[in-house]
Amino acid sequence: YPESRFRGHVLAAGAEASRMRNDFEKSIEYGDKALALDPNNAVALILVADALSEGSKPSQADFQEHLKKSEDYSKRALELLPTFFSTWPRDPAVPAEQYELQEDYIEAQVHATLGFVYYRRNELPAAETELKKATDLNQLRPNSADFERLGLVQVQQKKYDLARDSFQRCIDVAGFSSETCQRRLELLEK
User: Fold this and answer.
1) Cα–Cα dist 72/115, whole Å
2) How many angstroms separate the Cα of 55 from the Cα of each of 19, 28, 66, 180, 183?
3) What does the alpha-carbon distance between residue 15 and residue 31 come to, in Å, rounded to a whole number?
4) Measured between alpha carbons, how far is 93 from 80 in angstroms, rounded to an integer?
5) Is the separation of the CB atoms in 32 and 45 below 8 Å?
6) What angle (nearest 5°) sits at the alpha carbon of residue 134, between those of residues 145 and 160?
7) Cα dist from 148 to 130, 169, 184, whole Å
8) What is the pTM of this model?
9) Where are the alpha helices (DSSP H) in the chain?
10) CB under 8 Å to 117, separation ≥6 — which residues?
């Protein structure tokens, strides 16, 4: 069914599955195919932006172009999210707060991607602003990596008390970054 109206959704799902396996090239490939079908696919924009920011290496000739594309896609996704959220079917039995948590979680992912892009460019104030938005918004499934990155940005700006709080929050949230945050906190205390 190559002409199915669900093709874009399937391609976005393939982008997400690839991203979860850290296969950033495949994630970008599937996401770009989904965007070719619908340039306003907010989910595909978010997935490609994340894959570009996470999967690009400074040694690549197109590193800065990947970061720029990630930034552009993230900003475009933020513009589209209100419309995207307004199309969600809502079950009246589900409290509105649950939907708000989901919406904040999705928006937080975009701010986290932007924060990482700015961090990789050494645009520290912008990185801190975006990572702070991400960590403040994401109350549904806080991400330890976002707190770690926020702490690193704060250390580089010599905001040691804030960095200490961010690393502690990373530890409290648990997750794959918590052990690294524990070591970073110990170094910061020294």
Assistant:
1) 13
2) 9, 9, 9, 20, 25
3) 5
4) 26
5) no
6) 65
7) 13, 9, 9
8) 0.93
9) 7-20, 24-37, 42-55, 63-86, 96-120, 124-137, 144-156, 160-173, 178-189
10) 53, 67, 70, 71, 74
Write the DSSP symbol of residue 183: H
pLDDT of residue 3 exceeding 80, the answer is no
Spatial CA neighbour of 54 closest among 76, 38, 31, 37 = 31
pLDDT, tens only, 128-185: 999 999 999 999 999 999 999 999 999 999 999 999 999 999 999 988 899 999 999 9
DSSP labels for 43-71? HHHHHHHHHHHHH--TTSTTHHHHHHHHH
CA distance 163 to 96: 34
**8-state DSSP, 94:** S
- Say which amino acid occupies 88: W
Query: Taking each helix axis from N to C terminus, what angle separates 24-37 and 42-55, rounded to the nearest 10 degrees?
Result: 150
